[in-house]
Amino acid sequence: MESLNTLGKKFYHALKSIDIAQEKDARKREKAEKIHVVGAGGTITAAYEQLRNAAENAEEHLLLQKAIRRFYKRAFLTQQEKDIETSADELVTELTFAGYIANDSVPEYLLRSLNKLAKQYYAVYLYIQSDNKLSNLSVDAWVFDVLAVNVGVLFRDRLLQEGCAQFAFEYFKSALDDKEIFDEKPSDYDTSLFVAIHRELLKSDPVLIRSALLKSYAISPDNMEQFCQTNQNIDTVMTSKNADVLARVVSRQGAPLRVLFRMIESQEDFSKLLLHQKRFLGAFESQIENEYKSISQRINRGVVKSIIFLIITKVLIGIAVEIPYDYLLHGTIIWLPLAVNLLFPPVYMALLRSTLTLPPNANTIRLVRQAQNILFEDKKETKLYRRKKQFGNTYNILYVLFIMAVFAGVSWLLVTYAKFEWIHLVIFFVFLSGASFLGFRLSRMIREVESIDSEQNGATIVRDFLYMPFVVVGQKISETYAQLNLVAMVLDMVIELPLKTVLRLIRQWSHFISAKKDQL
Predict the structure, then answer these.
(1) pLDDT tens for residues 89-109?
(2) Are 373 and 511 within one domain?
(3) pLDDT digits 0-9 by tens, 423-475
(4) Same structural domain for residues 424 and 495?
(5) How far apart are CA 86 and CA 394, in angstroms?
(6) What is d(CA 437, CA 475) in angstroms, rounded to the nearest whole number?
(7) Taking 80 as the threshold, does the pLDDT of residue 29 lie above it?
(8) Is residue 126 part of a domain?
(9) Inter-CA distances, 476 with 141, 423, 430, 436, 470, Å
(10) For residues 103-129, average pLDDT
């Protein structure tokens, strides 16, 4: 262990403690009786979840959490306290049928913890609803979101993620000069840095960040006033400018840590490997190459998923808006604008994929050097962060004019040659901007492992020049869509609520019939 620096040694001991805790929990689970799920609706539930996830277009590691959230939101709406306090068995059944957890994998003793959490947060739910000062948004963020995370941890623990977050926090706390980033250190600097690390390195959504902060503050929902006050403080920090600034810094400087954290998940006996510098650095270099391959595969899957998402949403919009509009004004369907709006965004997504290239070998060398510096050397790299050149208002004005020019030029082409009307143009730009932002978000996967500035060629320069205006608009649309996902809302209310209610009743009736058979 002599080759590890102080931070590396601390990380090593933390990983060993996590290994011991996970092994202890695994032995306990192995000895316990497991819940075996049987009944009707497995195929239908799994198929619906695929449709629902495509409509939401969420990160894969958040799907379980979102499914749990939807379950409790339906349960709390019924306001049947007795059913909520005994809802664990139904939750396990639904998640098993949906494919989020394996059958015969959940110990029976977890049902008590699940029911206790449901009871605790239902009490908070009623408390917030009875307080006129707290909005419905607070109910969603403070109750359903946090409950979903805490329940999800019982199925898949987050000890490793928490250990990695703490390691990254200590590294950036020592490596960054707050005076280089801010003229005066903000009072919420530490909390903002914690938020930035979770957001950029661990891909935690606001829900996971909120839950992690509540855990670090040791806040329990049993103390409702303290729980609500702390959540209000967390809301302030997570939406602060300081957190955004630090998030950009962490994101740009976080490539070696991202590779390191993924290496921990994939490498057996990682803590032992950490004790041997040369072996570790060789394995780290191999991990970088594996990351490049993985990113390429994830981008391909992301393109396919995005195309499905665009087609589903476009078909619904076409049925709800374009076709009625055409019939109302022209008495028939105008096929060319409809076809262009349906086909162009998916084709555009596929073309964007061809411009995404992986980093060169120089990036690999740089990442290995950074890992060595972080874990094995006492002397840290200087100037981890330097302020970038600030551009004046002239550049911003020119950029706005450029965006307007691009939109005006595309509009002229569509109106002149494809006979677009205003409604067709609006839908076209909404979907083109959405596709551009989805493509940009996929390109961020490559950016996340870049430690050197990416190389620019003719194709990438033209791509960035033309599609950046649509990315900017697409980001605004995506943020609005995430807050008010109409497609997801329709699926939840029109399909999910009645579907899963009927399936639950069928399962209950099946259990009743089975009990009657046993009495004969």
Answers:
(1) 888 888 888 778 888 888 999
(2) no
(3) 889 888 888 888 888 888 888 889 899 988 766 666 666 666 777 777 877 77
(4) no
(5) 62
(6) 6
(7) yes
(8) yes
(9) 21, 19, 10, 12, 10
(10) 89
Among residues 215, 101, 99, 217, which one has the least CA distance to residue 154?
101
> Mean pLDDT throughout 227-242?
89
Give whole-number Cα distances, 380 to 84, 174, 370, in Å: 53, 9, 9
How many domains, in total, are found in the chain?
A: 2
Query: Hey, what are 280's tokens?
Result: 């570790």
CB 303 within 8 A of CB 353: yes
pLDDT of 487 reads 56
Please indicate, yes or no, if residue 212 is contained in any of the structural domains. Answer: no
Residue 163 lies in a domain: no
The domain containing residue 331 runs over which residues? 270-483
Integer Cα distance of 453 and 441 in angstroms: 18
- Whether 478 and 493 map to the same domain: the answer is no
Residues 434, 510 share a domain:
no
Displacement of CA 210 from its chain's centroid (Å)? 14
Which string of DSSP letters, residue by residue, matches 179-221? HHH-SS--TTHHHHHHHHHHHHTS---HHHHHHHHHHHTT--T
| 112 and 138 within one domain | yes
Mean pLDDT of 262-286: 90
Could you tell me if 462 and 500 lie in one domain? no
Query: Is 388 found in the same domain as 515?
Result: no
Closest CA to 92 of 34, 27, 140, 43: 34
**Pick from 97, 120, 101: which is nearest to 29 by CA?**
101
Domain match, 409 and 498 both:
no
Comparing C-alpha atoms, which of 34, 4, 250, 266 is closest to residue 160?
A: 266
- Examine residue 385 and state whether it is found in any structural domain, yes or no: yes
Q: Where are the alpha helices (DSSP H) in 318-377?
A: 323-330, 335-353, 361-376
Q: How many angstroms separate the CA atoms of 49 and 178, rounded?
A: 45
